Amino acid sequence: MIFPVKSNFSVSDSKLKDDVKYQLMTIYKGYMGETFKDLVINRISAGSLVVDFDLIYDNDTPAASKDIAEANIALLSGGSNIEVLNETVSATSLKVNGVIVTNTTLSDHKSVCNMYEALNGMCPSNQHCIAVDSQPSCVFNEVDKNNGLARVIVMVVVAIVALTIIVLITLLVIRKIRRMENRNLPDEEKKFTRRNNRYLSQITMKSLSQSCPRP
User: Fold this and answer.
1) Of the ranges 94-103, 142-151, 156-165, 174-183, which one carries the lowest mean pLDDT score?
2) Is the dihedral of CA 19, 23, 28, 29 positive or negative?
3) Which tens digit of pLDDT belongs to each residue from 86-125?
4) Residue among 66, 45, 52, 170 at smallest CA distance from 113
5) What pTM did the predictor assign?
6) Residue (of 31, 43, 30, 35) closest to 20 by Cα position
7) How do beta strands 82-84 and 93-96 pair?
8) Cα-Cα end-to-end distance for the chain
9) Which neighbouring-strand residues pair with 136?
């Protein structure tokens, strides 16, 4: 990570190294919380102030990678600064696993996503990286969303059709059972049933004729 300081300094200055380490630790811990464990400065080089460091943290997850990416973006955008050699500076560029991002490429969606994927690994095959206001994340492809909706619709239609078929089969079975029961009735009982039905029909007709007003 490069900080554009104007003052001269010695790369062997242990106080400078401790000062930079403390301030960077404060920034990263503020974004990462309890996930953050330590920051190790490997070396400090001249040519502005070039700091080579490693982050040590728990839970190598997309959430942790996103927190690191946000801290990096804050340092590049000026959202977070360090005070060193009586100067307040933000980073002008950083390198993450071979991917270089500068303060002038933060608005470039591809550069921010390259940094995020260098930390987190590539997004799953059914997702892609987007950077909204320089905040990267993996989101589902639009095609996969549509496919998911289509699958839900198909499942609902299949369930309705299956339920309809079950109801129809049940009704047919009940109807068949009733027909078989009628066939198995004794002849005398069948005659009684027919006479009873005729008698009920006559009563019904008589009731209807009595209830109708005469002209």
Assistant:
1) 142-151
2) positive
3) 999 999 999 998 899 999 988 888 888 888 888 888 888 8
4) 66
5) 0.62
6) 43
7) unpaired
8) 108
9) 131
Q: Which residues pair with 109 in a beta bridge?
A: none
- List the chain domain ranges: 2-140, 141-186
Residue type, 161: V
Q: How far apart are CA 86 and CA 13, in angstroms?
A: 15
Confidence of residue 33 (pLDDT cuts 50, 70, 90): very high
Q: 169 pLDDT exceeds 50?
A: yes
Residues in the chain: 215
Q: Is 133 exposed, middle or buried (0-12, 13-18, 19+ CB in 10 A)?
A: exposed
Residue showing tokens 């109807």: 175
Closest CA to 136 of 116, 119, 120: 116
State the pLDDT at residue 186: 58
Which of helix, strand or coil describes residue 18?
A: helix
**Tokens standing for 199?**
């008698």
How far is residue 111 CA from its own chain's centroid?
A: 23
Name residue, tokens 């930079």: 20
Residue-level pLDDT at 19: 95
